[in-house]
Amino acid sequence: MAFFSRNSTALVSEFFLICCPNYQSWQHWLSLPLSFLFLLAVGANITLLVTVRLEASLHEPMYYLLSLLSLLDVVLCLTITPKVLAIFCFDHRAISFPACFLQMLIMNCFLTMESCTFMVMAYGCHVAICKPLRYPFILTDQFVAQAALFVIGRNALFSLPVPILSARLRDCAGSIIKNCICTNLSVSKLSCDDITFNKLYQFVAGWTLLDSDCTLIILSYFFILKVVLRIEVEGAVAKALSTCGSHFILTLFFSTVLLVLVITNMARERIPPHVPILLNILHHLIPPPSSRFGIRNLLKRF
């Protein structure tokens, strides 16, 4: 992929990522905790994937969805963290244009894929509590396969224009990105072209996907709560809450962290610029959400 600067006829083939410009002297110290968290996140998720693959008793729809969530976590970690660690440890700031826009695509696509997977899992909880007799006939392997295709197809379709719109802009402000990762806004700011449509598309597409997922999750738990409050059998409420409680907490954590990221990015002028950058990195590492949820459920099974 080749890009040319508006102010120069020379071929520009890479960007340079500048993490926390005002605090570069202590960046290498951050590599230690980040390395530990990276190994923990990847190791825990891979352990979960291998366990579900090898243990026949876990070949169930909800564990397949949990495996999909873990796979998304692993890809996000491998897409972002190694490059950040290379910058912090070895000062390797250069990133090629294709790698930059691929990173942008994966971040936008897989984040909404996680949200969509939470929505499908919430529907599974809804069926388990509200329609328990129909659960084996609704939550089938075929349903999981169709849900996975929907998760991948919907979010890839809406996320693909983000890096394409950013890549078509003409660069006239150099090749230095003041971020640890290739976000749409960070790259678009290097252009002298009007980036209003880029910002508008990402905002509308992102919030349309996330809001629709959030709305359906809330509706699912509304109906779950409605049914649970009507249950009069002793211990049934506790069992119902045990079935869906972990998923609800996981979804709440995901939504809360995402909200914090949005707020910090909106308040950039009132907080140090490195804060949203570090939060964006840590969002993919602390804690490894699907692995914690999955391992907790695995321990219940054995």
TrEMBL record:
Q: Where in the cell is it found?
A: Membrane
Task: Report any Pfam family annotated for this entry.
Answer: 7tm_4
Instruction: Quote one Gene Ontology molecular function term.
Output: olfactory receptor activity
Q: Which residues form the signal peptide?
A: none
User: Domain G-protein coupled receptors family 1 profile spans what residues?
Assistant: 44-230
Residue intervals passing through the bilayer: 32-52, 64-88, 204-225, 245-264
What name does the UniProt record give this protein? Answer: G-protein coupled receptors family 1 profile domain-containing protein
Gene name in the database record: LOC101593360
Domain of life assignment: Eukaryota
